[in-house]
Structure formats: C-alpha cells, structure tokens
Amino acid sequence: MINLLCFEELPSMIGAVLGIIIGLEWIAIAFLLISQKSGKRFTARRDRKVTKKSSAIYLAHVAFFSALGVALLYLEFPLLPATPWLEMNFSDVPTLLASFMYGPITGAVVNVVKIVVKLLISGTSTNLVGPLSNLISGTIYAVVAGTIYMLRRNKKGAIVSIVVGGVVFCGAMWVCNQFILLPFYGMTEPSVMYTALWWTLLFNFIKVTVTSVLTFVVYKPLSRALHWQTDPSRRKKNAQTQESTGESDT
C-alpha cells in the first residue's frame, strides 16, 4: 500500500520539484541581469546610439517574426494518438530566433504578440487555458535560451541555450499540464493523470527537439541576411575586407 501511494503521488512530487527548479532558474537569471557591470554585454547594446532607421528596421523584424509565429500556429497537426488534445506546431521557432537576434525580452514580446493575435483572429475553445499555457511555456523558453545565448554568443553557447531552454520548457509544461490542462480536461484520477503526464512529456520532448534543430540550422543564415546591411560594425568589416582584396560592391 505504501509503495502504491508513493507511485500515485510521483507526478505531484515531480511537478513540485520542477516548479522549484524553474523558480531557481528565474532567480539565477535575475541575479545575472542585476550583477552585470555597465561595461559588459547586457549594456553594450544599450549604449549604442539608435537611429530612426535602425528602430524602424527592428520593429519590422519584430513584426516579421510575430507574423511568422501566428502563421505557424495555424499549421497544427496531431502527433501522438495518446495525446489528441496536443497538436504539433513550429511557432516557437520565430520566438527563439527573435530571442537569439535581439535578446530575451524581444523573444518574449514576439511570443506574447503571436498568441494575442491568434486569439483575436480565431479565439479559443479551451477558455484561455491553452493560450495561457503556451504563453507561460513559450515565454520561459525564449527568456532562458535567449539569456544564456546572450552570455556566450557562439556555437557552444547556442547549443547550451537551446538544450537548457528545452529542458525548462518541458518542466514548465509538466507543471502546466499537472495543475491546469489535465484537470481542465477532467483528468484528476491519479493513474490517468500519471499516464497522461508522461505522454505529454514525450510530446514536448519531440516538439522541443524539432524546434531546437530548426532554430540552430536557420539562425545564422537568417541573422546574416537581416543584419548584414543594418549592423554598422558588419558594414565596416565588409568594407575593410573589400579594401584588402581590391573588390567593390559593384
């Protein structure tokens, strides 16, 4: 009997542990943001003079990622027969791309915009439970991955950021499913909830893996295409390279 009770309470224990881990990660991120000195990477970009042209280009890029996220939200399809209420989509790819290019705050903004626009266009059939869950998990994904990549902007940093962000995403969705989604769908029986939680974890693992691979493959080419003519440092480097090689833009 004791073993059976422990087995049935395992999802609650896992949910509590994951909630604590997510909370600690948010505290760590906040500590890193506060403890950065004024001359380091978090404030380097803020010290640059922002022109009207660059501001307009930034807003255009945010609008582009948001619109792409909304479009991808409509391209949903079921993935696992055991979780028919979960549908696969790739809308987190634009969110991560925006977070890597412009920082975690921009990624969070894109995630919020795409969900709000989708709600305004087609509404929801889950009394805001589904959109709220996507809002929480997607924002956490963007903030965690974007913050880590901000600290180390190289290939290793990108891999670490998407892996850690994916783990936190799965943890956040476990908590949301346990305390919000599954009870909303009437899955309150411990044995039923236990099975559903592990199936949803598998679903989210597949989703995070596909999202991470797509983001990793697309990020560099897209970043170069969007920033090559808008980043002064890149234009200067390009001009120096052309001078040394004797090439011209024509």
List the main descriptive attributes of the protein structure presented here.
single chain; 250 residues; mainly alpha; Arp2/3 complex 21 kDa subunit ARPC3; two-stranded antiparallel sheet; 10 helices; disordered C terminus
Under CATH at level 1, the class stands as Mainly Alpha
If you compute it from the alpha carbons, what radius of gyration comes out, rounded to the nearest whole angstrom? Answer: 21 Å
The span between the termini is 80 Å
Q: Give the low-confidence spans.
A: 1-7, 229-235, 245-250
Number of helices in the DSSP assignment: 10
Shape: globular
Mean pLDDT: 76
Order of the strands making up the biggest sheet = 1-2
Order of helices and strands: HHHHEEHHHHHH
CATH architecture: Orthogonal Bundle
Structural class: mainly alpha
Instruction: Tell me the number of strands.
Output: 2
Protein architecture, described:
The protein has a single domain, classed as Arp2/3 complex 21 kDa subunit ARPC3 (Orthogonal Bundle). The protein is built from ten helices and two strands, in the order ααααββαααααα. Helix 2 (10-35) crosses helix 8 (155-184), helix 6 (104-122) packs antiparallel against helix 7 and helix 7 runs antiparallel to helix 8. The chain is an all-alpha fold. The chain starts with a helix and ends in a 5-residue tail after the last helix. It has a two-stranded antiparallel sheet. The protein is globular. The protein has helices at 2-8, 10-35, 41-44, 52-74, 92-102, 104-122, 129-151, 155-184, 190-227, 232-245, and strands at 77-78, 87-88.
